[in-house]
């Protein structure tokens, strides 16, 4: 069975733990080029296709990188422009951020962008209005929902698998593709990306992917380019934030390789034939 591979294409410093974790006006060391090239080489080697959710800031700084990803047969989608949490924006500000990012990327690749993923899964009970904005902007799908609850994000009441959300009592055409979980003791447990992928042992991740597949659905794996880069600079974070952001980075690439060897991956666009 095909599973879905997604990459949030952002730099090593893009994070949302607190308001001043990074300064959008400051110049930082560039790490995304070498890290993304490494990912592309791995995906080519193991015949995997992915959806790259491209941050508008990254597209603006590195347009050739976006062209290279598209030329390698991967889907280009949007991650917004400035890596800001949706629930800290007004609908108007959010619409401007996303429409700007969508246009930048479409100008680079010369074709429409179909999908969107929010920074830090920030479609939550406080920002359900975002779905209607995304549909109005012409997106076919969203991948911003994590059906769990954490201090930073989560929509625990959401279905575990793809669905069409409702807005103002109407079912939208927009398809929601939530991040993967397994059910354990009546709770949704994450496993397939980011901190969870880095922290959990590979055999458990593989078993969870198989469990989701047995339910008749693709597992959705997500990573950031920085997660295969143990030598990246370090942000100034609290102990808790540092654990979430950096734990398991030394072994992440090897875990990804094992996952690519074991399972077949395609993009969201490819799986749902959008």
Short description:
The protein is built from ten helices and twelve strands. It is an alpha/beta fold and 274 residues long.
Topology:
Layout: E1 2-9, H1 32-45, E2 51-54, H2 56-61, H3 63-71, E3 75-78, H4 91-109, E4 115-116, H5 130-136, E5 141-142, E6 166-167, E7 170-171, E8 175-176, E9 181-184, E10 187-190, H6 194-199, H7 202-214, E11 220-223, H8 239-246, H9 249-262, E12 264-266, H10 268-272
Parallel strand pairs: 1-2, 1-11, 1-12, 2-3, 4-5, 5-8
Antiparallel strand pairs: 6-7, 9-10
Strand content: 5-15%
Rg calculated over all Cα atoms: 17 Å
Task: Work out the number of β strands.
Answer: 12
- The termini sit apart by 18 Å
The computed structural class is: alpha/beta
Quickly count the helices. Answer: 10
**Largest sheet at a glance?**
5 strands, parallel
Mean pLDDT: 94
Describe this entry's structure for a reader:
The structure is a single chain. It contains ten helices and twelve strands. It is an alpha/beta fold and about 270 residues long. The strands form four sheets. Strands 1, 2, 3, 11 and 12 form a five-stranded parallel β-sheet that branches.
């Amino acid at each position: 069975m095909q599973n879905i591979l997604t990459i949030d294409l952002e730099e090593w410093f893009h994070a949302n733990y607190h308001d001043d974790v990074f300064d959008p006006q400051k110049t930082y060391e560039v790490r995304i080029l070498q890290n993304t090239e490494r990912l592309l080489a791995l995906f080519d080697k193991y015949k995997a296709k992915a959806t790259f959710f491209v941050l508008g800031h990254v597209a603006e700084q590195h347009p050739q990188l976006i062209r290279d990803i598209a030329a390698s047969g991967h889907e280009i989608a949007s991650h917004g422009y400035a890596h800001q949490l949706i629930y800290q924006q007004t609908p108007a500000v959010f619409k401007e951020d996303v429409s700007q990012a969508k246009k930048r990327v479409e100008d680079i690749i010369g074709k429409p962008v179909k999908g969107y993923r929010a920074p830090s899964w920030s479609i939550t009970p406080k920002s359900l209005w975002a779905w209607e904005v995304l549909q109005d902007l012409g997106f076919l799908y969203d991948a911003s929902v994590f059906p769990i609850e954490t201090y930073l994000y989560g929509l625990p009441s959401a279905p575990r698998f793809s669905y069409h959300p409702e807005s103002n009592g109407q079912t939208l055409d927009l398809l929601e593709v939530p991040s993967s979980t397994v059910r354990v003791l009546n709770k949704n447990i994450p496993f397939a990306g980011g901190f969870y992928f880095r922290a959990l042992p590979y055999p458990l991740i593989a078993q969870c992917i198989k469990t989701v597949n047995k339910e008749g659905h693709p597992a959705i794996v997500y990573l950031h380019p920085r997660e295969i880069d143990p030598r990246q600079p370090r942000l100034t974070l609290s102990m808790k934030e540092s654990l979430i952001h950096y734990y398991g980075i030394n072994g992440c690439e090897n875990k990804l390789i094992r996952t690519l060897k074991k399972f077949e991956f395609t993009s969201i666009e490819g799986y749902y034939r959008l």
